[in-house]
């Protein structure tokens, strides 16, 4: 056993002690799987230590893989319970032990040791390693379920007693039966609880939700399989799955009643105080936490851990599934920071995150590796929410005041939906804010408003496809004569954040109206503002989306933005309320959509420059697309770009990103702009005068003072009216996913940046790992793996360079495999035919050859053996089993002399089919078939021999 330690038990020592103990017990350390379970669509997040071993428990693991060879394992699994079946999000902060992120220490046995050893290990760790007094420990075991014919786990009870436990501390429980799902592996479990206080007898508090008696460890004994009909069958291999909550065992060993009082959290609490200037954390709960500041400390400390780990594993906040959960977690935390801790938000969580990295980066190195990426994502999300939090809270206060004026304890559900739809307030955040004021939410009204919004969106989507709002030449002529509707000032599109603006025009059904009052609900129409922060589609960059809002009064959802001779038309539909000419509104583009658009536009400039540098000055832009998820660039070039050149282009682009140079932009007069060496402009494009110039790494003012200096050719300089990042490092990453020809002399490159690039790299690495496993496999498994990967690789959006490398490897593996199979088949064929020849050479008077051949069910070889028998004029019936497919191939031959006496090969095959099942057919002289009863092969051989007529 690992040497014991007397305390004071810092968290790191607790974890190390557990690791060292099981390492000494011949367990293999398996690094924690990702909190994002990419290969398990049934989970939002990894929520238990056993998740990564599911394939072993289910028996679907590749026996030749590293995982398939595991017998004993241990680790600390990163777990998140913030969505789906296991969701502790709304409990965090309210008590001493709920967390959305936690570590689960675990040890596993896969068909190796079972109950006795597992129980003994946990007892030794707790009483000898951690030196917990056994008098403070209580255990539960499964008491049985007579109704469903599941026996009591008397084995576990006896094992605990044999270790010296007081019988009154060994407690039966009907709940101690663990199941993975409705069907599949399952079994009894034995939980270990500890009395935090000691010096008393408290078996009645076990499983009683008493904070002084808590469960710390669970041993699950997987010995049954739940069948489709609900019955249980013993598994051929029994497994052990255990889990001990790291935060909880640390609190017990450090003699703290709250997990948040341990050194797992105290460094985070101190940093929160430093960043916010709030009073120190005092550990109060419920009514005692009068100002709610202690609750805020706990929420923020928990949430920064969840976000740090989820984002380090590739999670991305967005509006769908786990991405939405992460957005909710961040926004919930931001609200506590602002409301309770009194600190500004925008970069708060990224400033707090380094404490988590410092504490846990050694155990989980992915935190250190991804620290910069985590910071960037947190800042983007937090900065976006910061601009709506104040507005949303003011509106919430208005709704709450309205409810109190009506003597209601319930918030209107439609108002709660608006808080989400317009300001991004997750409903659980609004519910939390309501609880603080003693209010509830009318859930029925909320669901009805949500459903109405969904239906309206469906209608708008259809209208967008067939009834796009456009200004034609007559509309523009009318606008030019109308002084009340000026051309739009869209310069704010180059800045961050919302602006106030005034409604100048409402355009519906080819008319300019003074109000939206008579426009039908859900109809598409256009709005013209005196000034706008929205980007109208231009220069290949997609338009912005967002909202034009009067807080609490109306919300116009902008789904399209187009510019017509200086008039920027915002198309969309009203979610609620009405607009009138002259109304002051907030112009609020979707910042989270704009972020990747900026990155992709600057990356397009970098790509354009690198193409010229690598391929030559003949490169001219022929078209482009800048979308949130990708960029596309069309250019003149006569031939396909060779992979080495493509690699140089990608590498040079990535280097520009790594250099993190500033991106400058300013208007210059058109004539001066064209004088700049190396300037890139689209041939035939009509540019405004003055024209906006975008430059990487050099101030435009510096260039303007020395226009014709040849050194400007060493950087990217373009005429461009698009939006761009502040510095190239904001792009994060760049991956070319396609290079193709679209017309004679025109090539196209498609690339991804940021999160999409990281996801492309992650998928590519998965392909590499799968290919490694395929290369190490054999037989039909290898063949199936090659086929599946070839198909998936062709459809994958990954680096075109990696794809080419993987295709080459796959082709080489396929060639070697086919050669191996061909050689093996030839050897098997020769051996099988030689065996028949030898049989008749040794036994010249033998009537026939009836046997099983070990050729993996290869029908072709069976036919070759039959053909050899035919040459010799001898009867043959041969069989071969395909174990993997669970089938039996069989074939026969009846010599002419026997057939003329009335014996038919088809009848002979039918006798065998009665034994093997399946089907058979053929001709009078020879038949073949495929049976399904693998276990009956020897009997079938016997029947074939006995039913063949012996000639006298």
From TrEMBL:
Its cofactor is Zn(2+). SUPFAM superfamilies: Class II aaRS and biotin synthetases, Putative anticodon-binding domain of alanyl-tRNA synthetase (AlaRS), ThrRS/AlaRS common domain, Translation proteins. It is an enzyme of class 6 (ligase). Zn(2+) binds at residues 601, 605, 720, 724. It catalyses: tRNA(Ala) + L-alanine + ATP = L-alanyl-tRNA(Ala) + AMP + diphosphate. GO terms for molecular function: alanine-tRNA ligase activity; aminoacyl-tRNA deacylase activity; ATP binding; tRNA binding; zinc ion binding. Pfam families: ALA1, DHHA1, tRNA-synt_2c, tRNA_SAD. It is found in: Mitochondrion; Cytoplasm. It comes from the Eukaryota. GO terms for cellular component: mitochondrion. Binds 1 zinc ion per subunit. Its EC number is 6.1.1.7. Monomer. Belongs to the class-II aminoacyl-tRNA synthetase family. Alax-L subfamily. Catalyzes the attachment of alanine to tRNA(Ala) in a two-step reaction: alanine is first activated by ATP to form Ala-AMP and then transferred to the acceptor end of tRNA(Ala). Also edits incorrectly charged tRNA(Ala) via its editing domain. HAMAP family: Ala_tRNA_synth_B. NCBIfam families: alaS. This is Alanine--tRNA ligase. It comes from Paxillus rubicundulus Ve08.2h10.
């Amino acid at each position: 056993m690992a040497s014991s330690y007397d305390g004071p038990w810092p968290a790191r020592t607790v974890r190390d002690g557990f690791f060292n103990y099981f390492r000494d017990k011949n367990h293999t350390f398996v690094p924690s799987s990702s909190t994002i379970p990419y290969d398990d669509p049934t989970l939002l997040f990894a929520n238990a230590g056993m998740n990564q071993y599911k394939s072993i428990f289910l028996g679907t693991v590749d026996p030749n893989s590293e995982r398939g060879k595991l017998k004993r394992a241990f680790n600390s699994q990163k777990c998140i319970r913030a969505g789906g079946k296991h969701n502790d999000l709304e409990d965090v902060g309210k008590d001493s032990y709920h967390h959305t992120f936690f570590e689960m220490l675990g040890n596993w046995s896969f068909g190796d040791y079972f109950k006795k050893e597992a129980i003994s290990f946990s007892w030794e760790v707790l009483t000898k390693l951690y030196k917990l007094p056994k008098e403070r420990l209580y255990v539960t075991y499964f008491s049985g379920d007579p109704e469903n014919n599941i026996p009591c786990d008397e084995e576990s009870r006896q094992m605990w007693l044999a270790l010296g436990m007081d019988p009154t501390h060994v407690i039966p429980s009907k709940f101690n039966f663990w199941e993975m799902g409705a069907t599949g592996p399952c079994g009894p479990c034995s939980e270990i609880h500890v009395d935090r206080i000691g010096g008393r007898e408290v078996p009645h508090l076990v499983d009683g939700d008493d904070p002084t008696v808590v469960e710390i460890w669970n041993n699950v004994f997987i010995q049954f399989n739940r069948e489709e009909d609900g019955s249980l069958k013993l598994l051929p291999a029994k497994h052990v799955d255990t889990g001990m909550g790291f935060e909880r065992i640390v609190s017990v060993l450090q003699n703290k009643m709250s997990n948040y009082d341990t050194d797992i959290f105290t460094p985070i609490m101190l940093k929160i105080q430093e960043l916010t200037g709030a009073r120190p954390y005092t550990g109060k709960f419920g009514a005692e936490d009068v100002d709610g500041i202690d609750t805020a400390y706990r929420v923020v400390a928990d949430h920064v851990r969840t976000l740090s780990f989820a984002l380090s594993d590739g999670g991305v906040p967005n509006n769908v599934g786990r991405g939405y959960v992460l957005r909710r977690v961040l926004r919930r935390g931001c609200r506590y920071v602002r409301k309770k801790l009194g600190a500004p938000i925008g970069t708060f969580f990224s400033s707090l995150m380094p404490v988590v990295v410092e504490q846990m980066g050694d155990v989980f190195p992915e935190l250190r590796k991804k620290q910069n990426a985590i910071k960037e994502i947190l800042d983007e999300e937090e900065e976006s929410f910061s601009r709506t939090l104040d507005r949303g809270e003011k509106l919430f206060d208005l709704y709450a005041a309205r409810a109190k004026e009506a003597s209601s304890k319930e918030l209107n559900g439609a108002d709660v939906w608006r808080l989400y739809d317009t300001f991004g307030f997750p409903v659980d955040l609004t519910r939390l804010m309501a609880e603080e004021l003693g209010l509830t939410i009318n859930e029925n009204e909320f669901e009805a408003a949500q459903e109405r919004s969904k239906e309206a969106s469906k209608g708008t989507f259809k209208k967008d496809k067939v009834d796009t709002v456009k200004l034609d030449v007559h509309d523009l002529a009318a606008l030019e004569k109308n002084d009340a509707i000026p051309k739009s000032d869209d310069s704010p599109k180059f800045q961050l954040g919302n602006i106030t603006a005034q409604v100048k025009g409402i355009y519906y059904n080819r008319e300019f109206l003074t109000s939206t009052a008579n426009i039908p609900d859900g109809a598409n129409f256009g709005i013209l503002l005196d000034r706008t922060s929205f980007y109208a589609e231009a220069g290949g960059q997609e338009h912005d989306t967002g909202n034009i809002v009067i807080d609490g009064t109306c919300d116009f959802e902008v789904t399209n933005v187009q510019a017509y001779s200086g008039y920027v038309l915002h198309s969309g539909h009203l979610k609620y309320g009405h607009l009138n000419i002259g109304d002051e509104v907030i112009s609020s583009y979707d910042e989270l959509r704009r972020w990747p658009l900026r990155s992709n536009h600057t990356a397009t400039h970098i790509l354009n420059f690198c193409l010229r540098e690598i391929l030559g000055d003949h490169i001219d832009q022929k078209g482009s697309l800048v979308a949130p998820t990708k960029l596309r660039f069309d250019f003149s070039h006569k031939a396909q770009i060779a992979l080495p050149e493509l690699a140089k282009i990608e590498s040079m682009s990535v280097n520009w990103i790594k250099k993190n140079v500033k991106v400058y932009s300013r208007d210059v007069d058109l004539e001066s702009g064209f004088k700049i060496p190396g300037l890139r402009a689209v041939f035939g494009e009509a540019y405004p005068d003055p024209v906006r110039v975008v430059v990487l790494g050099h101030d435009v003012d510096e260039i303007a003072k020395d226009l014709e200096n040849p050194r400007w050719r060493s950087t990217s300089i373009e005429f461009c009216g698009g939006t761009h990042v502040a510095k190239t490092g904001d792009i994060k990453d760049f991956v070319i996913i396609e290079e193709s020809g679209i017309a004679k002399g025109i090539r196209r490159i498609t690339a991804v940046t940021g999160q999409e690039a990281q996801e492309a790299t992650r998928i590519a690495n998965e392909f590499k790992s799968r290919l490694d496993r395929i290369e190490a496999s054999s037989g039909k498994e290898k063949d199936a793996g090659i086929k599946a990967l070839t198909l998936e690789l062709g459809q994958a959006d990954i680096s075109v360079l990696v794809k080419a490398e993987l295709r080459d490897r796959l082709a080489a593996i396929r060639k070697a495999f086919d050669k191996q199979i061909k050689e093996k088949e030839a050897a098997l064929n020769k051996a099988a035919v030689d065996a028949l020849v030898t049989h008749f050479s040794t036994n010249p008077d033998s009537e026939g050859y009836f046997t099983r051949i070990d050729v993996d069910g290869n029908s072709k070889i069976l036919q070759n053996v039959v053909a050899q028998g035919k040459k010799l004029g001898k009867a043959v019936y041969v069989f071969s089993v395909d174990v993997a497919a669970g089938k039996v191939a069989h074939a026969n031959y009846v010599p002419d002399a026997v057939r003329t006496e009335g014996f038919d090969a088809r009848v002979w095959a039918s006798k065998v089919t009665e034994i093997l099942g399946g089907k058979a057919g053929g001709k009078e002289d020879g038949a073949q078939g495929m049976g399904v009863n693998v276990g009956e092969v020897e009997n079938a051989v016997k029947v074939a021999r006995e039913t063949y007529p012996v000639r006298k």
